[in-house]
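agent> step 3/5: call structure_predict on target 'DUF3592 domain-containing protein' (Corallococcus sicarius).
agent> reason: downstream docking stage needs a structural representation; sequence fetched in step 2, passing through unchanged.
tool.input:
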Amino acid sequence: MSSRVASFVLLLVFVLPWTAILGAIDVFASAHMVRQVEAANWPSVQGTITRSEVEAVRSKGIMYSFKVGYTYSVDGQPYEGSKHRSSSWRTSDPGDAEELVARHPLGTHVPVYYQPGQPSEAMLQPGLGSSDLFLLMVLLPFHLVALWLVAMVAQGFKPEPPLLSTFVREDGSECVTLDAPSPALWMFLAWGNSALVCAVMGGATGAFIAPLPVGVGAWAVVIACGVLAGLWARARRKAGNFDLCLHAQTRSLSLPPFSGRKHRLDVRWRDVQSLRVEPQVRVQNKKQVTRYPLTLGLSTADGEVRQESIADFARQEQAEAMADWLRTHLKAPG
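tool.output (status=ok):
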């Protein structure tokens, strides 16, 4: 299957449904937040709490929510309200709902914010809160996956990159960057994972109903994690941690850490006895996948030949291109 056909299938099967569902959730979340921001400018009157309780609903387990009722008057006209915020949700932990019940005892006088021109539309807590920021935090990993899917589709419609791309470093060595995750990927992973961790910790500690600065602080942590991960990955790549280098002057080959090799390995050209691309069939996600590892045979002091893995390729032509480039310089047999 060509890359363009695969990209088109990915677009139809995954990207469009994923983005459609995510878009619908975004519309709902955006409407809720816009409503909350608008309500911050609504006029207010004093009201009285007439209902404050935790409601439990059985739906694949017990889900809890805060139910509130209050009375208020606008221009002498009495009204009843039941919204704490513009939207509410249920959770499996009753802790947040119980905390809100404790904050709103029966008979308590509270400010009620009502919509100008439609005073029957009212709420108790206008403006953005930590729960809104944590909602965006929960959605962040799903948006990152959507961007990754779009990038994969776009990559399939681009011209095929060269099988081998070499460059010359300042020391005169000719190098190839092996399979190195991009700094952007590290940023995405750090953002997604830190967002999930902060959201889980926020739900467990009651941060969803905490003041807005708590949510702002959580977002600062998430952003910092992504930026630091990207800078770390960029520094490693710039330092050549993933570069295989040929040094013509010293007639040596420098191999980056790979497949159990924790440190860079420098070998003399004359010690290279063989270069082989040997297809291997592996099982990944219950499917057989063929990979093409490139292996170097090195002579040892005791006359034996030790095998060192160089890289692992998904395409045979890429592995062969790397092997041909090395054989040209090392004069090693296949």
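agent> step 4/5: record observation. The first helix runs from residue 3 to 39.
agent> proceeding.
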